[in-house]
Amino acid sequence: DAGVTQSPTHLIKTRGQQVTLRCSPKSGHDTVSWYQQALGQGPQFIFQYYEEEERQRGNFPDRFSGHQFPNYSSELNVNALLLGDSALYLCASSPLDRGETQYFGPGTRLLVL
Amino acid sequence: GNSVTQMEGPVTLSEEAFLTINCTYTATGYPSLFWYVQYPGEGLQLLLKATKADDKGSNKGFEATYRKETTSFHLEKGSVQVSDSAVYFCALSVGAGNNRKLIWGLGTSLAVNP
Question: What pLDDT does residue A2 have?
């Protein structure tokens, strides 16, 4: 049973560019959450998707957007990249009826130059 | 509001020493509590959890007890190994149904020396 997978593992972009990160949830999971983890910090909640809709959102600007597909996989898009967007982006999945426990992927490390 | 406070690191121990990492929380209602571990260069792994007061979560020799009276969920291990070197995060789950999300502490770095 594959766990949560994310792609790519690493990415380098320049300021002003746009980036798309991808996540496939654990088998049987239908809820996907995205987190940003800056170096030396704890994860910060970006948003959560269920039934292809954004269900809740953390304190992130509209430059951060997402999508969930019918197969429950998800994308995180960040527009107009800033240097401060450099971080590890983590995807977590959970089954709605036992949604308290979230299972994390290995993350995508984004560096903005 | 909801928040998690962890003891600051880094914590440096010798192999076989006793480990305690303190975690206290502020929350409305009765949240579930978690410890996650992050090994160098990797994502987060669930270490243990407790869903109600007085529950004890345990895994891989680590334990934590949900103490409602002190709003704490301290992580303990009786004898640490070099392989336990990682960053440990305490978190609580708030909301219900499809509005659940995790609130995180800042993490505590643990280094275990042989």
Answer: 73
